[in-house]
Amino acid sequence: MKNRKVNPKPDTAETARKAMNKRNKKSGGDPNMPYYYVLGGFGGLMVVIVLYFVLNPKESFLDKQVVDQNEFMINNLHNQMFTAGPNEQFEGYTMNEARRFFNIGISETPNMNTCPPKEDIAIPDEYDFTKDPKREHCVDKEVRSTGNCTAGHVLSVISTVEDRICIQGKEGDRFRLSAQDTISCDSNNFYCDGGYVTQALEYGTKYGYVKEECFPYEGKNTTCPVDPNQCREDKEAYHLLGYCIVQGPIEIKKEILKNGPVIAPMTPFTDFLTYKEGIYHPQESAFKFNGQQALKIVGWEQTLNGEAWIIENSWGPSWGEKGYAKVMAGIRDIGLDYIGIAPMPTGSNAADWEVESEKLRQDYAKYAEAQKAETEQVEGIEVEEVDA
Ligand SMILES: *[C@@H]1O[C@H](CO)[C@@H](O)[C@H](O)[C@H]1NC(C)=O
Ligand SMILES: *[C@@H]1O[C@H](CO)[C@@H](O)[C@H](O)[C@H]1NC(C)=O
Question: Where is the Peptidase C1A papain C-terminal domain positioned along the sequence (predicted)?
């Protein structure tokens, strides 16, 4: 917001005084009293305006409602690229309250494995996972709604893992995994207060993700059940072998074509919250929020204004184009073109994975047993030596 000059114009005060005098003539009484009263009030108001806009220009903006019909009218009259409109996600939220949804980071450490280089894959001008005839059956029926929980870092991960398990095709129809389990039970992140994408991936690597019905989404700070989840008891968890990152638009595209959608960080601007349709890019009047949103890149397309990424968000189907958006590519401030994060699900069903992990466990048990025997032997020898 630009600084506003607030010089009280003398003619404005003069007009106010005249109007007040006129009114007072009608109602009688001392004409001078209201005159000073008006000036005093006027000056006081100026002080408030000065404090509001000049000293703390963001203050008023933060108190604004995100869903604001007047803003939509202004945007939709002037913005040729995208329209703005209401959505259920931010209905009733002020800009200030919306800030906490971006308490999200990619990783606590800069060390992440780069995905192995790929053989040459021909990159088409346009690709959309949600419309790919070979993969359509792997598209979620409805995009997720984060509710009143900062969970973009988990929802983007879970949704991408689901797509990829389905694309690998060993498990039949697409099914949902539980985001709530990861949100509530992963003590290395911050529950409904946000966290790191890579931590949500570590959780899947170590413990696996259980199915949605095992711990359905609530979109609030539900505590992790004390009793172990029945699905975990039954060893039904879908593990990741790990995850890796691809860098730059070309590698991001190759990864999507080869293995499926990727998770990506995006810098959020205020006008993104009420994006409705078209090609998004931040308007000059928009503010940048601190933090990140984590979302899923599902494809790209060519527009009159250049290339756009097609992304899936987690703000429900009433946001954007049924929960999806097209975001102008190559805009540094948005930061969408830099990295994609690729989870690598085992892709086999839980039982198959169990066979694998059972074998690992047995190997480990043998190893541990051998270590123990050796230690005892060493101790035995020591004892003998002492005795001798
Ligand atoms: C959303 O969550 C925040 C923080 O956990 C809480 O302060 C606020 O009251 C909640 N809002 C609603 C509408 O539930
Ligand atoms: C959410 O729950 C965790 C414990 O499960 C707690 O540490 C955290 O403070 C809670 N956050 C809020 C906003 O209630």
Answer: 123-349
Least distant ligand from the CA of 184: 2
Cα 148 to ligand 2 centre (Å):
13
Pocket lining for ligand 2, CB < 6 angstroms: 191-193, 221, 223
Q: Which atom of ligand 2 is nearest to the CA of 184?
A: 5
Calculate the average pLDDT of the chain: 81
| Whole-angstrom distance, CA of residue 315 vs CA of residue 103 | 15
Pick the residue whose CA is nearest to atom 12 on ligand 2.
221
Residue 54 confidence (pLDDT): 55
pLDDT at 32 over 50: no
Residue nearest to atom 5 of ligand 2 (CA): 223
Residue 362 CA, ligand 1 centroid: distance in Å: 47
Q: Going by C-beta distance under 8 Å and a sequence separation of 6 or more, which residues neighbour residue 384? A: none
Residue nearest ligand 2's atom 14 by CA: 221
Is the pTM for the entire model greater than 0.70?
yes
Sign of CA dihedral 47, 53, 55, 58: positive
Nearest CA to ligand 2 atom 2: 221
Distance CA 255, CA 249 (A): 10
Percentage of the chain exceeding pLDDT 70: 74
Q: Residue 379 pLDDT more than 80?
A: no
Output the six-digit token pair for 244.
């890796």
Q: Which pLDDT tens digit goes with each residue over 64-111?
A: 999 999 999 999 999 999 999 999 999 999 999 999 999 999 998 877
Quick one: pLDDT at residue 235?
77
Return the domain boundaries, the chain: 69-349
d(CA 318, CA 259): 28
CA-based R_g, the chain, Å: 29
Find the ligand nearest to 190 CA: 2
Question: 69-349: what fold?
Answer: Cathepsin B; Chain A (3.90.70)
